[in-house]
Known about the structure:
By secondary structure, the chain is α/β, with parallel strands linked by helices. The protein has helices at about 1-10, 25-40, 45-50, 60-70, 100-110, 130-140, 150-165, 170-180, 185-195, 205-210, 215-230, 235-245, 250-270, 275-285, 290-300, 305-320, 325-345; strands spanning about 20-25, 50-55, 80-85, 115-120, 140-145, 165-170, 205. It is built from 17 helices and 7 strands. It is globular and about 70 Å long.
Amino acid sequence: MKNIQKELANIKKGNYAPIYLVLGEERYFIEQIRETIIEEALDEEAMDLNFSSFDMEEDTINDALFEASSFPFFGDQKVVFVQNPYFLTGKKVKNAPNHNIDELEEYIKNPAEFTILVLFAPYEKLDRRKKITKSLEKNAQFIDVSSPYPNEVNRYVKEIIKEKGYQMTDGAFQLFMERTDGQLTKMMHELSKLFLYHVDSKKITKDSIQYLVPKSLEQNVFELNTLVLNNQVEASIEAYHDLLVQKEEPIKIVALLISQFRLLLQVKILKKQGYPQGDIAKVLKVHPYRVKLALQNVQRYDQKLLSEALDYLIDADYKMKTGQIDQELQIELFIMRFAQQSKVYS
Length: 346
């Protein structure tokens, strides 16, 4: 995160690199970089003429480089964005255009002085065996926009709240984390609404978070899952019926239950093998906050119980998709069956 703030500060000072390589999937930071470069490097009246964006899954790198090499109109600077440069990875894209990578290598050696070329690579990692990747890593200004760890997210968001002159209690912040899944992009989006709502008082409360920050289907199913794990059968069925009233499809709910039980089982296995929380998130390629929540629950449950529950849900999912069983009834049966099985393994 320090790398990002440093580069944003340089851009705002007018210290531009001719080529940037932006690697990672955190949408909030990606948008910050996009907006800052456009706002700082381009004159507003000539923005339409001197800004271009190319998607490498649809456009060729040759088109992007032709634009980058062409002189700007009514201005001193051009900005060219290259989205999804999958050729820097091992990814295969069906029906993608042919790219002349040699031309990109030549441009990297001698970039246009009047153009800022930005490659946005929304990937976890690149294929560093490739010549073009090595060339970019050597010559381009690298910006890491991978998803930060939960403690970094917490610290960053709290700093933003303080800088804007607002206050949020620890309890309110915990609820805010839960409603946004601890994802920075979601948090910053919802924070803008909370700032506007509390523009006079400057004090963000739990009540306003409950009112303004909606629960996603994933969060509702997570709460359902928590009730199931705690063997609260009546409350579980009531929560499930509430989702049906909201027109949520049983097949979507089952898919999310499968995802959550699979995560619990995987976290339990890796924890037994001695993996720390951060490494579990990396191995499973899930958000660290999800792993943190899973670790809070998983110690109480037998591995075989979780495994049998997952098998049951996967079988139910197949039968629901093939029309063999009543979709709405199947989840109720799972809730009751899990409560019975929990007694066996307790």
